[in-house]
Amino acid sequence: MLIAIYHVLKEGVPFHDLGADYYDGFRREHKIRNYLKRLQALGWEPELSPTTA
To answer: DSSP string covering 7-23, please?
Structure first.
């Protein structure tokens, strides 16, 4: 939050809220792989099924 305030004050640009779900979708595939690796390290093996894109 401080970084956003700094840029607003320094550059004189208005604050633009990206929304609550912005960071949920950011690097989504990377997060999924990371969480699957962590679950597997805990002993859980996922049942993967083909997905449609």
So the answer is: HHHHH-PPP----TTHH
Query: What global pTM score does this model have?
Result: 0.48
Write out pLDDT tens, residues 13-53: 898 888 888 877 888 889 889 999 999 999 998 777 767 65
Q: How far apart are the C-alpha atoms of 27 and 43, rounded to whole Å?
A: 25
CA dihedral 26, 50, 38, 27 (to 10 degrees): -10
Say how far apart CA 23 and CA 33 lie, in whole Å.
Answer: 16
The DSSP letter of residue 49 is -
